[in-house]
Amino acid sequence: MPDEQLDEDAPIFAIAAAAELASMHAQTLRQYDRIGLVVPGRTRGGSRRYSLRHIRQLREVARMSAEGISLPAIARILELENEVSALRRQVRGLEQQLRAEVQQRPGARVFAAGATGAVVTLRQGARVRRATEVVLYRRPEPDAAAEAD
Asked: Where's the HTH merR-type domain (predicted)?
């Protein structure tokens, strides 16, 4: 079998298997589903199906519960972790867009003011007459622009 990434969101485990993998009773998983703590996928027939991500969440819930954290607090922690994950995915996407945009445009452009005052873009390496004012424009780096704010 080639190196394939396992989809950790694929709902593949029935409740009995998920309970065993999470070292919990199946009734506990049903209760967590009812209160919205760890909500599995459902088959067309309505059976619960848990993914690897759900199993990891169940183990985390068990750990936090054993440390004395209340179920409403655990629910909030999981909600915030999901929000952080979504924001990280969004940031990665925006960073990719930014990199693509920067690659499509040249990093530095040279402009000159003509005799009439019109702005003229010069080819890189072109010589300018002495009577012409030269201004170098360099797009700020993304990190530098963020620090300036």
From this structure: 15-80
